[in-house]
Design a protein that fits this description.
Blueprint: E1 14-20, E2 25-33, E3 39-46, H1 51-71, E4 77-84, H2 93-104, E5 110-114, H3 120-126, E6 139-140, E7 146-147, H4 152-171, E8 180-184, H5 188-199, E9 203-207, H6 211-221, E10 224-225, E11 238-241, H7 250-255, E12 260-261, H8 274-280, E13 284-285, H9 288-291, H10 294-304, H11 308-332, H12 336-348
Parallel strand pairs: 3-4, 3-5, 8-9, 8-11, 9-10, 11-12, 12-13
Antiparallel strand pairs: 1-2, 2-4, 6-7
Helix pairs in contact: 1-12, 2-3, 4-5, 4-10, 4-11, 10-11, 11-12
The structure holds nicotinamide-adenine-dinucleotide.
Binding site for NAD(+): 185-190
Organism: Pseudomonas guineae
GO biological process, one term: amino acid metabolic process
Length: 350
Amino acid sequence: MPVFSHIDFDHHEQVVYGHDKASGLKAIIAIHNSNLGPALGGCRMWPYANDDEALRDVLRLSRGMTYKSALANLPLGGGKAVIIGDPHSGKSTALFQAMGDFVESLGGRYITAADSGTGVAEMQIMAERTRHVSGAEMREALAGGKRNGDPSPSTAYGVFIGIQAAVKHRLGRDDLRGLKVAIQGVGQVGFDLARQLKQAGAELWVTDIVEANVRRAVEQLGATAVKQQAIFGLDVDVFAPCAMGAIINQQTLEALRAPVVAGGANNQLADASLAETLRCNECLYAPDYAINAGGIIDVYYGRSGGSAAQLKAHIEEIGATLTQIFQRADASGKTTVEIADQLAEERFAR
Ligand code: NAD
């Protein structure tokens, strides 16, 4: 399978294939760039239809991690791992031990973490074989007490901070009292974001494909439930995508009325050109990989052992980074996505 001529190859430093006959492990680790430090990124398990799909995913995702970590001011490079397999039926202790050995073989150039299809339990198994794993430990929680390695509370806090910055920039408002926010997806990140917005006095509209998640937001936070497609056209101040990717597309853009799009979901734009359409519509878009970096910051602190106060202060830098992106975008007439990429490249010294 060609790597150097692959459309998603972007000067990746290392792309390594790993196999273990006994456990059936088939995995790829890609290190995109390590100028700022060891490459950190999640280990995804997915039933890829073929090796090329897995390669494409690992090339794109590892590159994205370089940009995300640089924007988050972390001394980390970008990397990612993919395991070809079904996370519902294909998991075993032996598989993740072998994956741990694979990660260890790179000697710390790549540090792994949980991602789609993997979680704290799998990180704990890998940690039996390698030190280069994050999210297997118990640590101090943002809100006090102890917690496991789940980074979603930090992601939600970063999105909350990012919404504050976007609302100040676009709407000139310093506080969120009475702010109208529509949230698509009230799972781990979306619900915790909703809770913080509610505490700050915002009014909430929510949707989710899981009815119980909607009910929880309605009952616990007084949110208004709306149908899935209705979430885009609401007359609100902020649309916060917190479900899946590619939800900003031609069709949803036509319905979208919010002057701010700021949420936790990864890869929100169906294609990069939509950033320009958003700009022309005077809709301020907070680039997803800038606003949802709370999770990677959390993972970094889980490894480096910083305190909850240090973690919180670092997550709050997301606000300053976004403000810088918004101001530069205004001054240059470029999209927030172009500016975010530029800023990241300045930081990792492309
Ligand atoms: P989650 O699975 O807990 O929550 C996602 C929610 O969206 C679920 O409740 C799901 O039912 C709902 N959903 C799915 N499709 C939907 C649709 N079409 N319409 C409405 N709701 C829908 O996941 P999460 O951890 O909260 O992550 C949410 C998003 O944030 C994902 O895109 C994820 O990649 C991204 N993200 C998460 C983290 C993190 O720390 N968890 C970090 C960075 C980015």
